Target: Lipocalin-like domain-containing protein
Amino acid sequence: MKNIKFYLLPLLCVMVLTSCSENEKDKDPEENTSINGSWRLTSNSFGSFDTDGSRVWTDVKDGHKLELKSGGNFMSGEFDCKEGTYKLSDKEITFTFGCETFDAWLLKYTNGEILYSYEIKGKYMILSEIGSRCDEGCLYKFVKVESPD
Model:
């Protein structure tokens, strides 16, 4: 019996020590913190809340693609004006469209800029309009579809 305990104790120690180490293969492949890459709109929420106070999301069929390149350029399929630059500051992102003026959601943006707060949760990015036409906020949920260039 002493022999079994003598051999099991070191084996148990090795198992505990190796199972606690973190390496790249142990990380969740869905975990993502980079904003760069291609994203597709999957759902939106325009200020609707459930009876328990949770936000109501509506699925978007064939949502537009948003590509954020590492150099600060973007391409979007949302508006007639399809490309421009973006700038990150804290947890905000400013999209400056490359057109002089453009119509978006029946609003006229004369400086070509739209400001959002953003949050990345796993493989999802949530954009929330700042200065929105929605009293409770307009939110857009994107899923990452490709790795950055």
